[in-house]
Write a structure and sequence with these properties.
The chain is mainly α. About 70% of the residues lie in helices and about 0% in strands. The chain is elongated, with a radius of gyration of 28 Å.
Length: about 240
């Protein structure tokens, strides 16, 4: 009688653990989807600015300089015909749009891109934190419920922690040379404006904004692979189809 009651208790505990795991796996997939979408948005924003599709506004020129104070009236009158075309060119406030620019990007300026990148950065950071938390709770439930596949879920959890460390903007938090993948839109604009044509600075530029992105995506793929192996181990142990 006691053996039957203990077996029924174990079955109830295992069932509860499996139900909890199903909930956390669902939320883990939600946060994974948000991470992937935000990574694609941020990487797309980088290429839009880096390739000059969206150009930052030119810096305003120094104000308060009186040209007439440095040039004599006779020289101004003599050069009136030469300076008239230049003034007319400068006076044009709007340039004709580039015909090669896609139609859906013509109304998408730097201000819109900056807001989009800020929202994507915030969602990416929050999704990364909750992604790690769901994996942590999955590890805890797997150990307590003795569900199996603990090796795979532990590896997935530590890889998610490494991914979160790579995401954090350490250069903004501590004002140091060590940087994370997340960056401010103004940092991106400044880096693209100061991009050098020399080989080594150019390689470092793309390693910062593209190589980092590939590393983060690689960790995300590895986490998902180990989570799949963990789920298969649970199915094999408890004969769940």
């Amino acid at each position: 009688m006691s053996d039957n009651s203990s077996e029924s208790t174990d079955m109830v505990e295992v069932t509860d653990a499996l139900e909890a795991i199903a909930v956390f796996r669902g939320w883990k997939n939600v946060f994974l989807t948000l991470l992937i979408l935000c990574l694609l948005v941020v990487q797309g924003g980088f290429w839009l600015i880096d390739q000059g599709i969206i150009k930052p506004k030119p810096k305003p020129e120094a104000e308060g300089l009186d040209v007439a104070a440095f040039v004599s009236p006779e020289a101004l009158v003599a050069d009136a015909n030469a300076t008239q075309p230049i003034v007319s060119e400068v006076a044009e406030p709007n340039e004709a749009p580039d015909p090669s620019t896609p139609s859906f990007l013509k109304a998408f300026n730097l201000a819109c891109l900056t807001k989009t990148l800020r929202i994507a950065n915030g969602l990416m950071l929050l999704s990364g934190i909750f992604f790690c938390l769901t994996l942590f709770f999955s590890v805890t439930i797997t150990i307590m419920g003795r569900l199996g596949g603990i090796r795979h879920i532990c590896r997935a959890f530590f890889m998610s922690l490494i991914m979160l460390v790579l995401l954090l903007p350490w250069h903004v938090i501590f004002d140091s040379l060590v940087c994370g993948y997340l960056y401010r839109p103004e940092d991106l604009v400044l880096a693209c404006e100061q991009k050098s044509t020399e080989l080594l600075p150019l390689i470092l530029h793309y390693l910062r904004f593209v190589g980092f992105w590939l590393v983060v995506c690689g960790f995300l793929i590895a986490v998902q692979v180990h989570c799949g192996r963990w789920a298969n181990s649970i199915r094999r142990r408890h004969q769940i189809i």
